[in-house]
Amino acid sequence: MSTVPAAEFAAQFLSWFQVSAFRLDTLGFYLADNEREPYRRFLAGQEQDLSWRHPWQRTVRQIGKRDRTIGRVHIVPDPLTDDLRFELTCAYPANVAAGEDAQILARSEADGIGLPDGEDFWLFDDRRSAVPNYGPGGEFTEVEFADADRVDQHVEWRCAAQAAAVPLHDYLEFAGLAPAE
Predict the structure, then answer these.
(1) Which long-range contacts (CB under 8 A, 24 or more apart) does 60-63 make?
(2) Which residues pair with 133 in a beta bridge?
(3) Fold annotation for 3-175
(4) CA-CA distance, 149 to 164, in Å (whole number)?
(5) Residue 31 · residue 166 · CB < 8 Å
(6) How far is CA 66 from CA 8, 9, 59, 112, 141, in A?
(7) How far apart are CA 48 and CA 35, in angstroms?
């Protein structure tokens, strides 16, 4: 597998696909540099300034303008971690508003249909997949591009995850969580 540093992967993100990008999230904690202060504010119960989401929203909007699609399924435990409550109520609603299809799947359901625990991936055009690696603090460090057999497995997992997941807003309503304004 070839490895690409996180910064290079992000800088070239739009070049990795022509039709669709899909992300499967399976971990309970992630921390990007631009999320540190918003996450601190979230834990302190302070109001959110969602401008930190604008760069990703611009990327998602560019994807839509190019007639491409982007979506994700996030597999979540019960109960949710603080980080996941933050992601689901602060980050993901902004993603959806920009055009990303964000869906949620309970870990118990994911286990029942054979989805992975602890293996995230990006799947591009159902032909290429990138497996992110994270540092000990949850920071994204690099991706490894998978071989053809692994890509086939990721396509199967994407299909199963999307068939079982629910849209973000349905999940938030069911869980009694309100998106940040």
Answers:
(1) 60/95, 60/98, 60/99, 60/100, 61/98, 61/99, 62/14, 63/14, 63/21, 63/99
(2) 142
(3) Endonuclease; Chain A (3.30.870)
(4) 23
(5) no
(6) 21, 19, 11, 36, 28
(7) 11
For residue 104, the cross-strand partners are 74, 166
Residue by residue, pLDDT tens for the chain (181 residues) are 699 999 999 999 999 999 999 999 999 888 888 899 999 999 999 999 999 999 999 999 999 999 999 999 999 999 999 999 999 999 999 999 999 999 999 999 999 999 999 999 999 999 999 999 999 888 999 999 999 999 999 999 999 999 999 999 999 999 999 998 7
From the number of C-beta atoms within 10 Å of its C-beta (0-12, 13-18, 19+), residue 130 rates as: buried
Tokens coding 156: 């199967």
Number of residues in the chain: 181
Looking at this protein, which amino acid is placed at residue 133?
A: N
